[in-house]
Every structure is written in structure tokens, then in C-alpha cells.
């Protein structure tokens, strides 16, 4: 997917471009270096394995994994419909799906609150049914799904459109029904994009903060995920906050490694 | 398992009708953009024409009246196989699983489907390549695998869209031979540019020009007695069209072509005069003698043609010896007289008289 060009000697790039480029790179990398330099390596293990850390980590993994599964279950059909189906307003739908990507997460949290909260659009109906979502673990998962879904939809929709329908046409003339074409031809062909989209969605869910704290609150063991825990610890125990941040940095680096590998595999 | 197809797509200027009797192969010839692909897409259910009726083996597959769909069988339920220019093997499946895809889609158990696929791979000469991925095949091997895959699905109609167009010239003859074996007894439609495909693979030929079927008949008849400019060209014959005036074919202003007419013609009927390029001689000065037809034209191309030199002037071609070409100093742009004896010209009527013929 990523097209990499080898810079060569005869490049037409003006020399001065390296200066702002270097400053930009420093802006991205320096804070990470600064943070890593503050890690108290001797205390790292006890800090990471403290009760509150483990609780937050476990909750984060559980909710992010659930949100990722939801993203795949909903996002794959969304991507396919946006890429293949013809219906009025498709271009608008394509843009709206990306909304959570550009919306401030805290706004997303408020929107979710007015949908699923006690006085929300669906909240009352849900309460009659005995379901309360706001400020529960379910709310965490919903918030994470809300922000992570576009990542999966974008990368998969692009891949499906690029792949075209020539193999699907052949499969149909061989007698394959639409569901079989989807499972045996379409999805295997876009598997690298599906994998990288899933990993990206997981990473986004794991890092989710704004929508979660607005819609789900910060209740230890119930809604206090890793980013929330880091935010709280920052005041009381900066060393613990840095240690937990390191965990998220490691996850992020791993994600980049994974998506890059699946990305290059798909380019011949 | 006969096919009867009529499809009209006004926005593409296409309105075609073909019939393929059971067990026969129809070659569809015609210039690019004439509507050949539209015909295949309509048969396969990949295109919904504005007006269409596709009947395979007595079963209506498509019935559309003025944009209103009456009957529509989706592509996967038609039993119509398609072989395209490129093999389009599924890149993520082994060659064997590619070929087994059709039987598996029909619900055949895996082991049985693989056995069928294995047999088909052997029939197209790909023994021992079962486990390969498509990327590890040559172009010719991939197209063989695609043939096996299309036929393993046991289609009631096989559509072939220029199956050799993307292959090396060297790989074509052997593949054509394989196709002639596996298509025997099947109902098939083959779109091609190459008259050899029509001769070796097809029982019947349909010529499509500008969205209309201008000729449709047994291959031998169409190629021996072409009635359209395109068929004449692919058959390697010169054709001049006009109207029969009782003793010859009147072509435009003041030009008449005389020849041998072996069927009764009525004056005023559209007729064509057909003759071989080898029967045409090229002169730079007026010629006299036995009854001859003379065409004045400017040379466009002089090119080698076997042992001879082919001279193209206007819409006509003449094959002459290299010696006379040198002697006459034939170069593009030069005005010449193309002369053909009346005895070498065959004249017959054009049944479908609407289509245009080249004017010399």
C-alpha cells in the first residue's frame, strides 16, 4: 500500500527542505525520548504490576479487544457496502463515516452520552429494558468502537476499491454465490488491508481517552482504562504514569511494525 | 443447449442478435469497440441491456423490455462460464484449488472437487502443477489453468473473450489445439480478432460492425463469400460493393466492376465484387486486352507478404512479385492502376444490404 521511493543522488529536493523536515521529526521524536529518559527502570516492574496498573491494563485489553471485534463485525460490511454498493447519498455516507476521525473525542463522548445516556435518545428505551450503558464497561467499549471504526473502514474500503471486481466476476461465472465470493475471494484478496486496519483500530481503541472519560467516567476496574489511569497517576505518582505510558509506546511501535509489514506484503 | 441472444444497449450503439445451436462454437469477429464485449457481458449476466432476451437451452436468463427487467438470472446461477484475455486465476489459491473452485461452489465435496480439478489439469496439459500458486506459472500455463477452471465448473455455455490476446505468439498454437479439444461438443461463443481462431475453433461466424451483426453463418460460407468489408478483410480478400446493373456491379460514379456471377441477380440489387489480391496486377500505364477492371488509386503501403510484395492502394490490395515492385518503383503516394481480369472476380448479392462497403 505504501509506495516507497528510494531517495537518490539526483533528487530535485532543495537543500533547505531538510531543515524544517528535521525540526518536524524532532518535534515528534524528542518528547518520546524525553519521556523514556524519565523511566525509572529499577522500579519499572513493581510500578507496572501494582494492583491499579494491572486492573487498568486488564480492563484496557479486554475492552479494546471487544471494541476491535465489534469494529471488524460492523466495519467490514460497512467498507464493502461503501466500496461496492450503489445507492443515493453514498459519497455523503462515505464522508460521514470518517466523522469520528476528525471529531474531538470529547465531543464524541458527549454525543454518545446524549444517545445512550439515561436521558439520551435511546437511553430511556434501554432503561425500560433494564439496560444502563453510560458509566459502565459497555460504555467504554462503545466509545472505543466509535473512535476506532473509521480506521478499519477507511483502510479496507480503499483496498476493496483498488482490488476491483475482476476476480469476483470470474468467481460468479464459476457458480459462486455472493456470500461465497465474499468469503473465498474478496476478503482473502484484501486480507493484508483487513489485518492492518484491525491492528490500527485496536491501537486507536487502546489509546482512547476523551470519549471514554466523558461517556464512561473513571471508575477503577469498570471504566478506568490505561490512558485514564495514566492521567490520574500523573498527579499522584509520576513514575507510575511514565511506566504505564511506556507500555502504550511499546504497543504503538509494535502496531506500526505490524501495519508496515502487512502493508509491504500487499505490494508486489 | 442452444443459445439465442438478442441485446440492445442504445448508449453504446449496440443492437445484436446471435444464435448458437447446441454443441457448436460461434466465433464473433469485428473491429474493436463494435460491440463484441457487450454481447458476452449480456450473455454472462454482467450487463443489463436496455432491451434483451437471452435464452439458453430453453431457459430464459435475461428478459428486459425497454429497460424493464422481466427475467433476470444472476451470473452465478446461469451456468455460463467466462474465459477472459487474462487468466485471472485467484492469486491466493493453488492452481488445483482454482480449478476446484467451480465444483466446490456447486456443492461438490472437497475431495471429489479436487479429483475433478486434477483430471482437468491433466486434460489441459498441466500435470504436476497442482500445488503451484498462479504467480509461479507462465502466461500460457496460467491460461491453460483458466481454461481448466472454466470447464471444471461444467458450464452449459462457454464464453471466450480473445483468450489468446495476452499470450506470446509462440504459446498460441498449442493452446488453440487444447481449446479445440475441450470445446468439442460444447456450446461456446468465442470473441476473436484472428481469422485462424474462427477457422480452427468455430463452426459458425458472426461479424459485428458498428454495433450490428452484419454476417452470421457457417465459417466456410462467411470466409469464402464475405458480404461485409470486415469479413472480406480478415478473409484476405478485396471487396468492392455497389448495385447490380444487369451486367456488372456499379460502384459510385462512373465505375463498374465486371466479373463472374453464379447466381441470378435482379438489377438494382446490392451486390459485391470479390477478388484475391494475388489476382490483381499493378500498372503505371493504361492496359488493354481481355475484359479487365481498372481501379485508379494512390499507394498507401508497400510491405512484404510471404514471397510477394503486398501493395495497398485505396481499399484494395495487390500481391505482386518483388521484381515487378522494384521495376515499377512503387512507393507510397504514387498513383497506380490496379487491374484485375473479369474472370478473377466473383460477384454475388448481399443479403443484408444495409451495411457499407468500401468505395475504391
Please supply descriptive tags for the structure shown above:
heterodimer; A: 268 residues; mainly alpha; MetI-like fold; 14 helices; 74% helix; B: 360 residues; alpha+beta; Rossmann fold; OB fold (Dihydrolipoamide Acetyltransferase, E2P); 2 domains; six-stranded mixed β-sheet; 24% helix
Ends apart, CA distance between termini of chain B: 44 Å
Q: What's the story with the biggest beta sheet of chain B? A: 6 strands, mixed
Helical content of chain B, roughly?
A: 10-25%
Extended strand count of chain A = 0
Give the domain tally of chain A. 1
What is the third-level CATH name, the topology of the largest domain in chain B? Rossmann fold
Percent range for β-strand residues of chain A: under 5%
Poorly predicted tracts of residues of chain A: none
Q: Shape of chain B, please?
A: globular
Give the strand order of the largest sheet of chain B, numbering strands 1, 2, ... along the chain. Answer: 7-8-9-3-10-11
Mean pLDDT of chain A: 89
Largest interface, by Cβ-Cβ below 8 angstroms: which chains and how many residues each? A-B, 19 and 25 residues
Percent of residues of chain A in helical segments?
over 70%
What is the number of helical segments of chain A per DSSP (H or I, 4+ residues)? 14
Amino acid at each position: 500500500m505504501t509506495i516507497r521511493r528510494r531517495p537518490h543522488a539526483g533528487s530535485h529536493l532543495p537543500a533547505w527542505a531538510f531543515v524544517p523536515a528535521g525540526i518536524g521529526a524532532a518535534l515528534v521524536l524528542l518528547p518520546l525520548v524525553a519521556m523514556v529518559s524519565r523511566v525509572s527502570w529499577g522500579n519499572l516492574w513493581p510500578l507496572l504490576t501494582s494492583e491499579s496498573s494491572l486492573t487498568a491494563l486488564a480492563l484496557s485489553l479486554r475492552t479494546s479487544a471487544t471494541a476491535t471485534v465489534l469494529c471488524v463485525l460492523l466495519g467490514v460490511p460497512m467498507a464493502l457496502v461503501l466500496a461496492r454498493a450503489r445507492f443515493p447519498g453514498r459519497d455523503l455516507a462515505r464522508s460521514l463515516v470518517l466523522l469520528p476521525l476528525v471529531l474531538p473525542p470529547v465531543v464524541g463522548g458527549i454525543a454518545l452520552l446524549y444517545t445512550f445516556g439515561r436521558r439520551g435518545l435511546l437511553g430511556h428505551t434501554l432503561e425500560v429494558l433494564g439496560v444502563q450503558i453510560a458509566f459502565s464497561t459497555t460504555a467504554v467499549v462503545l466509545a472505543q468502537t466509535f473512535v476506532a471504526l473509521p480506521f478499519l473502514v477507511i483502510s479496507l474500503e480503499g483496498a476493496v476499491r483498488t482490488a476491483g471486481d475482476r476476480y469476483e466476476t470470474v468467481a460468479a461465472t464459476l457458480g459462486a454465490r455472493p456470500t461465497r465470493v465474499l468469503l473465498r475471494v474478496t476478503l482473502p484478496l484484501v486480507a493484508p488491508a483487513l489485518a492492518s486496519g484491525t491492528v490500527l483500530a485496536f491501537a486507536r481503541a487502546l489509546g482512547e481517552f476523551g470519549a471514554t472519560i466523558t461517556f464512561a467516567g473513571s471508575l477503577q476496574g469498570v471504566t478506568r482504562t490505561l490512558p485514564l489511569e495514566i492521567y490520574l497517576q500523573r498527579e499522584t505518582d509520576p513514575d507510575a504514569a511514565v511506566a504505564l505510558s511506556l507500555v502504550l509506546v511499546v504497543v504503538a511501535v509494535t502496531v506500526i511494525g505490524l501495519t508496515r509489514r502487512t502493508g509491504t506484503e500487499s505490494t508486489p | 443447449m442452444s443459445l439465442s441472444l438478442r441485446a440492445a444497449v442504445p448508449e453504446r450503439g449496440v443492437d445484436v442478435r446471435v444464435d448458437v445451436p447446441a454443441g457448436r462454437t460461434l466465433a464473433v469477429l469485428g473491429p474493436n469497440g463494435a460491440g463484441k464485449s457487450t454481447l458476452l457481458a449480456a450473455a454472462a449476466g454482467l450487463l443489463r441491456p436496455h432491451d434483451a432476451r437471452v435464452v439458453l437451452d430453453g431457459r430464459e436468463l435475461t428478459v428486459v423490455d425497454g429497460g424493464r427487467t422481466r427475467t433476470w438470472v444472476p451470473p452465478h446461477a446461469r451456468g455460463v462460464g467466462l474465459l477472459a484475455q487474462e487468466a485471472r486465476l485467484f492469486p491466493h489459491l493453488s492452481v488445483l484449488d482454482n480449478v476446484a473452485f467451480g465444483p466446490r461452489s456447486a456443492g461438490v465435496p472437497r475431495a471429489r472437487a479436487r479429483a475433478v480439478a486434477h483430471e482437468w489439469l491433466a486434460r489441459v496439459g498441466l500435470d504436476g502443477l497442482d500445488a503451484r500458486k498462479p504467480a509461479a506459472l507462465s502466461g500460457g500455463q496460467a491460461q491453460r489453468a483458466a481454461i481448466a477452471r472454466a470447464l471444471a465448473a461444467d458450464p452449459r455455455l462457454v464464453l471466450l473473450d480473445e483468450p489468446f490476446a495476452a499470450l506470446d505468439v509462440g504459446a498460441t498454437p498449442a493452446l488453440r489445439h487444447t481449446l479445440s479439444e475441450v470445446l468439442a461438443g460444447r456450446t461456446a461463443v468465442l470473441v476473436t480478432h484472428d481469422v485462424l481462431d474462427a477457422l480452427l475453433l468455430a463452426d459458425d461466424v458472426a461479424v459485428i460492425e458498428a454495433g450490428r451483426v452484419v454476417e452470421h453463418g457457417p465459417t466456410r460460407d462467411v470466409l469464402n463469400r464475405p458480404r461485409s468489408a470486415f469479413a472480406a478483410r480478415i478473409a484476405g480478400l478485396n471487396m468492392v460493393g455497389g448495385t447490380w446493373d444487369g451486367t456488372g456491379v456499379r460502384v459510385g460514379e462512373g465505375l463498374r466492376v465486371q466479373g463472374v456471377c453464379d447466381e441470378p441477380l435482379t438489377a438494382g440489387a446490392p451486390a459485391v465484387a470479390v477478388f484475391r489480391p494475388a489476382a490483381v496486377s499493378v500498372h503505371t500505364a493504361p492496359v488493354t486486352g481481355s475484359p479487365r477492371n481498372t481501379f485508379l488509386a494512390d499507394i498507401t503501403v508497400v510491405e512484404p507478404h510471404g514471397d510477394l510484395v503486398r501493395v495497398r492502394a485505396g481499399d484494395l490490395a495487390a500481391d505482386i512479385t518483388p521484381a515487378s515492385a522494384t521495376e515499377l518503383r512503387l512507393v507510397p503516394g504514387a498513383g497506380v492502376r490496379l487491374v484485375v481480369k473479369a474472370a478473377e472476380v466473383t460477384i454475388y448479392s448481399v443479403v443484408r444490404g444495409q451495411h457499407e462497403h468500401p468505395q475504391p
